[in-house]
Amino acid sequence: AVFSAISTNQEIQKRIIKIYSYDGPGLDKSILDNVKNKNIFKKINSYIPQDSIIGRILEHKETPKVIQSTEKGLLQHDIFSWQVKRDEPVLLEKATNESELMNKTISSWLKETKIEQRKIFIDGMYDVLSSTEINTIDELTISLSKRLPIFIRTYRNMPEEDRRIISQALREFGKAYATMLRRS
To answer: What is the model's pTM?
Structure first.
């Protein structure tokens, strides 16, 4: 929704009343910096759960509102866990420390990896996850031990260069996490 709204022509942008993003990732800084009509950013209403990871990836021009969720970690991405009182979301002052740590880690990792490396890493991780026919985050966490051999088999069947890049990306992510953990 955000990308479509900022990418469309100004005639259509004038007709947009509000843009809603529910734990949606941001965009690359180069995309946001090239938006001609900066007023479109005022129309974005962004919401994230307190442990948000997905909704904090990349850059945002808007300040997301933090909603209380009954779930933890990645399971908070499920909007049905978000708390509402009457017809208003239950808002919190800020995201959790864990969300902050993960946000800083991912941001640091993104700065240290090239776009082609990210593409291979994300495509590879997608291939590994989709090989298990998991449809929800719940299914991933519930049956992780049963699906681990499938993950490993899929990873081993990838081209050697892709495996090397994925392993390197995971090591770099681990280093970034350790660095951010020490700083917090």
So the answer is: 0.79
pLDDT tens digits, one per residue of 84-102: 999 999 999 999 999 999 9
d(CA 92, CA 51): 11
Q: Which residues, at least 6 apart from 85, have a Cβ–Cβ distance to it below 8 Å?
A: none
Q: What are phi and psi of 90, to 5 degrees?
A: -85, 105
Q: Which long-range contacts (CB under 8 A, 24 or more apart) does 140-145 make?
A: 141/74, 141/75
CA distance 140 to 28: 28
19: tokens are: 């843009």
Q: How far apart are CA 125 and CA 102, in angstroms?
A: 18
Q: How many CA atoms lie within 13 A of 40 on its CB side?
A: 25
Query: End-to-end CA distance of the chain, in Å?
Result: 33
Q: What is d(CA 52, CA 113) in angstroms, rounded to the nearest whole number?
A: 22
Cα angle vertex 83, ends 81, 86, to 5°? 135
